[in-house]
């Protein structure tokens, strides 16, 4: 019985990964698009079975925006450590992927993949909501192989 | 109540407002700025695009027979400045936004093409290409075969052809 519960849980959770959002110094453009995917009925990311949660402890798929500024770097890494494994990491926007327009700035510690293993990239500045949904769909496919 | 009923009726008739994507096609405006496309045949190698790009997404690399154009889509912010400033119509914004990818493909998302140097048909010296869209702007009204002849020459020979010095036959 005790052995069955974790396997049942993992079977169920493949269908409903929870999303968590980290702002690593973003201009807020990408964050607005992330909010758009969740709140506006036109896009409605919850059709994919996922929903945003407020605590890193509940997260399965973590969406990171922003170029990882020197100021937030330690806080972001600490927050990332709090997310239980297995997890899937999505870099949203060109900022976390390459630095975008902030590349080579003295205030930027990124690109993010030097510190955190990234699984899916969604380029764009900001990416349109449909592109984010496409990225989340790819992340869910990765998530199903991990659990 | 009387305000509410028409709204309810309209919503019932309209059906869901959620887009079908990702289970169907997404609505994409024709003029959406997304992936930049590059046409090596229309590039004059002026490198204005690399200079104007605010994200440093465009880079040129020297090759033995020309210059290699590189545009990394993971740095491009879709501003469209390169397409605006390219006088030669070598760069265009397209509405293809399907750019999300796995981390293993991160550095494959590059638009890459080598634009070759050419030989002047008159003096035989190596020269930069003079693409058709640019030459048509520079010599408006000239017949097409004349533009073709001029664009195969280097700037010096072209100058000598189009504005001959006094006493020289044209
Ligand atoms: S990718 Fe663009 S919109 Fe997104 S955080 Fe960076 S600058 Fe802002
Ligand atoms: S793409 Fe256009 S702007 Fe860029 S080097 Fe070629 S001609 Fe110049
Ligand atoms: S659209 Fe803007 S950011 Fe992208 S390559 Fe052109 S100039 Fe650079």
Automatic annotation (TrEMBL), chain A:
One Pfam family it belongs to: Oxidored_q6
Gene3D superfamilies linked to this entry: 3.40.50.12280
Domain named NADH:ubiquinone oxidoreductase-like 20kDa subunit: residues: 27-138
UniProt keyword NADP present: no
Highest taxon above the source species: Bacteria
Cofactor(s) required for function per UniProt: [4Fe-4S] cluster
Key words of the record: 4Fe-4S, Cell membrane, Iron, Iron-sulfur, Membrane, Metal-binding
Coiled coil feature spans: none
GO MF annotation list: 4 iron, 4 sulfur cluster binding; metal ion binding
Transmembrane segments: none
Family designation: Belongs to the complex I 20 kDa subunit family.
Protein name: NADH-quinone oxidoreductase subunit B
Organism: Telmatospirillum siberiense
